Amino acid sequence: MKRAVARWQTWWTRLFVAAVLAAALLPVPRPWGLVVAAVLFALSLVRPPATTREPVEVDPPLRGRWVVVNGPGTAVPSHGVKAYGQAYAVDVLQPAPDAPTSIGWGLRPRRPETYPSFGRPVHAVAGGTVVRARDSQRDHGARDTWPLLVWMMTAEGFLRDLAGVGRILGNHVVVRHDDGTVAVYAHLRRGSVGVRDGEVVRAGEVLAEVGNTGNTSEPHLHVQLMDRERPTAAAGVPMRWRGVGADGERDPRWATGRRRPSALPDFPENGQVLELGEGTRKAASRGRRPSAGAPSRT
C-alpha cells in the first residue's frame, strides 16, 4: 500500500498546492479546505518500504580521480531523504585544487564548462536494458554563491518537485539489470546520451557524459540503485564498487565528519578521494558508436 501511494508523490504535491490555493482564493469552508490540504500533504510524504537487500557489487560509473559527496559511506539516507529511491545514492565529482575555498555572494553563476567534472564519460555499472534515456534539458550555470544556493534549495527546488522527478534528475539514463536492480545516472550533459530506450548495454559501456542539469549546484554525477524502475515507487538499494583505490587523501571541502551509525560499511566516506580504475570491463566501451548529436568536449 505504501508503495502504491508513494508512486503518485508528484501528484499529491501538486494537489496539495492546488488545495492551499483554493482554500485561500475561493469561498471554500475553511475547515474543509485545511483538512483536504493536510491529507494531501500527508500523502505526499509517504515513502516505499525500505529494501532488505544486501549491498550489490557493481563496477564504478567513472574513471580516474573523483571525490565522494553525499554518499552512504557517511550516513543513510545519503541525501537526507529517502524520496525518489535515493537512500543509498552517491554524488561524485573531480577534485578542483583551484576551486574557491569560501562561498561568495555574487549573482552571476559560473559556467559548467569551467568545472573539471563536466563532460567526463559515464559508464554503466552493470549490464542491462535501458528503461529511459533523456538528454534534452540544458546545462545551467552553477549554484555556487549564497543567493544562488538559497534559490536552488527553495523556490527552484519546489518548482522542480512540482514539475516531476525528471526535472529533479535532469538529463538521465535508467538501466534495469538482470538481477532486478535498477541504476539511475542523473544530471547528465545535454545531447551526450548515446543509448536509447530498450537498448541492451554492457557493464563498462559509455552511456553519456557528466553535466549540470536538474537539481544540482555544480557539474557532478549522481548515481543510485533502486528496486523498481519508477523512482517515486522505488526504495534505494545499497551498492559497492569494484576496483576502487584509495590512499587516504581527503578533500576538506566535501568532508562532513565521522561516519554516522547508519552509514553503509565499506563504502567511501564523504570527502574521500578515489581512484576509479577501468577494471576488467575496459573492452566493453570500445567500438561504441558516438552519441547522436552530442556536442564536442569543451
TrEMBL record:
Region (Disordered): 242-298
Protein name listed in UniProt: M23 family metallopeptidase
UniProt-listed InterPro entries: Cell_wall_metabolism_enzyme, Dup_hybrid_motif, M23ase_b-sheet_dom
Domain of life from the UniProt record: Bacteria
Alphabetical list of Pfam families matching this protein: Peptidase_M23
Record domain M23ase beta-sheet core: where: 167-231
Species the sequence originates in: Oceanitalea stevensii
CDD domains, alphabetized: M23_peptidase
